[in-house]
Specification:
Dihydrofolate Reductase, subunit A, 10 strands, about 30% strand, alpha/beta, about 170 residues, globular, 3-stranded parallel sheet
Length: about 170
């Protein structure tokens, strides 16, 4: 099973403003939606879940199988599953027959998956923005991960996508 981290970020490494606002471009949203729709699943943290639910984004990305990683959250909705750890999230989707799993934030979740050496590839959509404060792409500052650049893709005039393989 391949585990892929897919995330949009500013050029200085923020995935959202302090108030959780994500002013990403239409092109980034199209890329993200297409990526999720193709794989039919997404693993997210509880804050990301509530933000996406509020904006009705699960419908917009094709109602994928959603696994929310949270130690104490209880959500009772169709297509929403709860896992108490990154490994449990992977186990759930593995048992459902998925060959690829998409991890899509937030910063704590991204760090947790990397710390447990679960991420195989990373897709970064880099928006031409700088936030002075916000939510970092990786919450943990003690990560030490080597990457190999697989591709660079221009998604629009100002938006690029970097695709990396995680060297394990």
């Amino acid at each position: 099973m391949k585990i892929i981290l897919y995330i949009a970020t500013t050029i200085n490494g923020y995935i959202a403003k302090e108030n959780h606002e994500t002013p990403w471009s239409k092109e980034e949203w199209i890329s993200f939606s297409s990526f999720i729709n193709k794989r039919k699943n997404i693993v997210i943290g509880k804050n990301t879940y509530y933000l996406m639910k509020k904006e009705n984004e699960f419908d917009k990305i094709g109602n994928p199988m959603v696994v929310v990683v949270s130690k104490n959250e209880m959500i009772n909705e169709k297509n929403i599953l709860i896992a108490h750890s990154p490994l449990k999230a992977i186990d759930i989707l593995n048992k459902k027959g998925f060959n690829e799993v998409v991890v899509a934030g937030g910063g704590r979740l991204n760090s947790s998956f990397l710390k447990e050496k679960l991420i195989d590839e990373i897709y970064l959509d880099i928006e031409p923005l700088i936030f002075g404060k916000g939510i970092k792409i990786f919450f943990d500052n003690n990560l030490n991960v080597r990457l190999k650049l697989l591709s660079v893709k221009k998604l629009s005039k100002n938006l690029i996508q970097l695709h990396y393989k995680v060297i394990k």
